[in-house]
């Protein structure tokens, strides 16, 4: 009988851990939250002023809003076009080729980390992998796509 009580107690203690995150923690960040996070990281990395940082936030917010709409269609070409539009806006904003190169390098690193976290490899582009994106997540840096 003591064993049964011990097992039940242990199960009650372990079940929340087995079930994973609490519902609030498992929700996707909003486009605004994602874009704010990326703008902050890019502002530090590229040494942006407040106006530039605000513009980065708007560019990424638009990108994430459009990604949310069009990515569900599963059309990799649309997602790639959205990325190109985002990058073209960033190129205009950053003005210098050095800052844009740093931005491009940062985004490539984010993409590689994202692919690694999903187990995507062999040169396959992540947009066509069938995986959903969780941009804005601290730790795995999946927030640029």
- How large is the share of residues in beta strands? under 5%
Q: Please state the structural category.
A: mainly alpha
The profile of the biggest β sheet is: none
Mean pLDDT: 74
Q: What is the terminal-to-terminal distance?
A: 55 Å
Count the beta strands. Answer: 0
Order of helices and strands: HHHHH
- How large is the count of helical segments? 5
Q: What's the Cα radius of gyration?
A: 20 Å
Helix content: 55-70%
Shape: globular
Folded structure, characterized:
The chain is mainly α and 145 residues long. Helix content is 66%, strand content 0%. Helix 2 (31-46) crosses helix 3 (50-70), helix 3 (50-70) runs antiparallel to helix 4 and helix 4 runs antiparallel to helix 5. The longest helix is centred in the last third of the chain and has 22 residues, at 97-118. The protein is globular and about 70 Å long.
């Amino acid at each position: 009988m003591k064993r049964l009580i011990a097992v039940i107690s242990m199960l009650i203690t372990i079940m929340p851990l087995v079930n994973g995150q609490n519902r609030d923690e498992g929700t996707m960040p909003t486009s605004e939250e994602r874009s704010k996070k990326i703008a902050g990281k890019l502002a530090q990395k590229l040494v942006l002023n407040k106006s530039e940082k605000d513009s980065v936030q708007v560019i990424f917010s638009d990108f994430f809003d459009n990604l949310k709409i069009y990515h569900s269609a599963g059309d990799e070409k649309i997602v790639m076009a959205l990325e190109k539009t985002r990058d073209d806006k960033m190129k205009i904003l950053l003005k210098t080729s050095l800052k844009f190169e740093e931005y491009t390098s940062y985004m490539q690193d984010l993409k590689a980390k994202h692919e690694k976290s999903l187990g995507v490899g062999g040169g396959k582009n992540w947009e066509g992998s069938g995986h959903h994106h969780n941009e804005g997540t601290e730790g795995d840096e999946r927030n640029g796509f």
